[in-house]
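DM from R.C. (forwarded with permission)

"hey, sorry to bug you on a friday — could you get me a structure for this? deadline for the figure draft is monday and I only need the backbone to look sensible"
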Amino acid sequence: MNLKQFYKLLLFIVLIPALSSCFEIVEEINMRNNGTGDVILTINLSQSKTKVASVMLLDSVQGYKVPSKQKIQSELAEAVAYLKKSEGISNVKSSSDFTNYIATISFTFKDVSNINNITKNILAKQKIKATNTSSYSFNKATKIFSRKYQPIANAKSEFNKLKNQDKAVFNGAMYTSIYRFETPVTNVSNPASNVSKSKKAVMLKSNIMNLINGKVNVSNQIQLLK
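My reply, with the result:
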């Protein structure tokens, strides 16, 4: 699954009418040595919760209909239902905090490759164009975890077609990926990665505008201790 695109889906469903530049998208993958693992996807608008709360009282903003809390919960439930039917996916859960405006979806996978095609199908249902392709793999023999990321050529031009006020939504917005392992990390291919003191977690943080403009690449190959 292209996890970044899953977040984009949630942004369109839940946040477009109420977004400010202060939000964060967090992707967490917890890998076990046997190849199974867990995913936690979070959109955090807590820094802008006062503004978002005010916008939620309106019918529309900048031409976008403001969804009700019930509509947001319904859309999250639909995503959960789809995930539950996906091959290799189990233990699917979602949560929505309307005090701090944080939305989360989590699930367990049998193999990290199980998540590679899920978002493409969800986005198609919502008629949302993908801005990148991304795939994940884990080789149990070599102990290598890989995330391959490739922006779509016209992503930047499509973004430039947006109204200026819609573009401004993404100024200062951040994207963070966190990968955790049971075995220590010995090497990472992406120089922007930060390895934890325990050597069992890798974090990569990026400005979302830099991702949209193709200024950064979040591909990574993580070698674990054999």
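R.C.: lifesaver. The chain is about 25% helix and 35% strand.
me: no worries. Helices lie at 3-15, 49-55, 69-84, 118-126, 155-160, 164-167, 208-212.
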